[in-house]
Design a protein that fits this description.
By secondary structure, the protein is of the alpha/beta class. Helices cover 40% and strands 17% of the residues. The termini are far apart. Helix 5 links the parallel strand 5 and strand 6. Helix 1 packs across helix 7, helix 3 crosses helix 4 and helix 9 runs antiparallel to helix 10. It has a domain of 165 residues: Rossmann fold. Strands 3-2-1-4-5-6-10 form a seven-stranded parallel sheet, with helices on both faces.
Length: 326
């Protein structure tokens, strides 16, 4: 793409895992970028310093969204796990139609489907159908679990780490937000071949959480184990942290989806569309080692053992239960 390309792209969620890198890539490729953010902070100021026009607004506000979409050729629409997704999608679709926006890349999720029990997942499916009814060139991305989730749910005590999650022996191929951003940028730049496509996005290696723990262990050089817990304990832990009920309902139900294989799979879409080799879990952890020096923001320890440790199952016990794992 030449530096003469004068198209303007709107990136919502511009300080998040996918939006931040998508904005940077488009700027580096000579495009104009308008970064839609919820508030000004160091991340938004970094985008401004890189050349983006930053606007502060609410995705549920028709005036905010309409103003942000003026003059925009293509937009990336990304709404958080929170109430209001359908309202925000309707607002975006109307404002984009009025502004003459030509294309949209919509961040959905792999569990989006009509029969989803998760409210958020079912609403993502409905949001896809709504955007398909507009005149915009529309592409939906359905990633599996982000690799970043590993650091969010990570627990650290001394020289040992643990992942306490309700995913049983389910499997997925973790994918980073930065890798997904290469697909977002590529589709925004050339939307025509991707119109009305639904792209599941996966990382390079499918594994269960025992395998993920082993990959983290290799990267950090410390023992790391996966401790499966019940969905009920997981939900109670989120509630104890003050997590919103919408988030708890969503994560509890996608945990069941995960056990049932909904998040499985691998493909080469990031390489083919984004021209990017996606990071492995080990590469991600090595690059973000500082995030693993302490507990992640969503880690919930079990009740303390008699010796004061929060470890219910020791590393040696885990290895004994899974002798084929090293």
């Amino acid at each position: 793409m030449t530096k003469n390309d004068d198209r303007l792209f709107l990136i919502t969620g511009a300080t998040g895992n996918t939006g931040r890198t998508a904005a940077r890539l488009l700027l580096e490729r000579g495009h104009r970028v308008r970064a839609f953010v919820h508030r000004e902070d160091d991340r938004s100021r970094q985008l401004a310093a890189a050349g983006a026009e930053t606007v502060v607004g609410d995705l549920l506000g028709l005036h905010d969204v309409g103003s942000a979409l003026r003059g925009v050729s293509g937009a990336y629409f990304c709404y958080p796990i929170a109430p209001g997704l359908l309202d925000a999608t309707v607002t975006f679709a109307q404002a984009a139609t009025e502004a003459g926006v030509r294309s949209v890349v919509n961040m959905s999720q792999i569990s989006a489907r009509r029969e989803a029990v998760s409210d958020q997942a079912r609403q993502h499916w409905l949001a896809e159908r709504l955007l398909d009814r507009t005149s915009m060139l529309t592409t939906h991305l359905r990633p599996t679990f982000f690799t970043e989730w590993i650091s969010w749910w990570w627990g650290r005590q001394g020289d040992e780490g643990v992942l306490r999650l309700p995913f049983g022996n389910g499997r997925h191929a973790p994918v980073t937000g930065a890798d997904q951003a290469y697909v977002i940028a590529a589709v925004l730049e050339r939307p025509e071949p991707h119109d009305r496509q639904v792209y599941p996005l996966h990382g390079p290696v499918e594994m269960d959480h025992h395998g993920i723990a082993e990959a983290v262990s290799r990267a950090l050089g410390i023992p790391v184990t996966y401790e499966p817990i019940s969905v009920e304990e997981f939900a109670d832990g989120l509630a104890s942290q003050g997590a919103p009920s919408h988030l708890i309902q969503h994560l509890s139900n996608v945990a069941v989806d995960y056990r049932n294989g909904v998040f499985r799979g691998t493909n080469n879409l990031i390489e083919v569309i984004g021209d990017r080799s996606p990071l492995t879990v080990e590469e991600f952890v090595i690059g973000r080692r500082h995030d693993f020096d302490h507990n992640g923001p969503r880690f919930t320890p079990p009740k303390p053992a008699p010796d004061g440790s929060w470890r219910h199952i020791t590393a040696s016990r885990i290895r004994g239960l899974h002798p084929h794992r090293r």
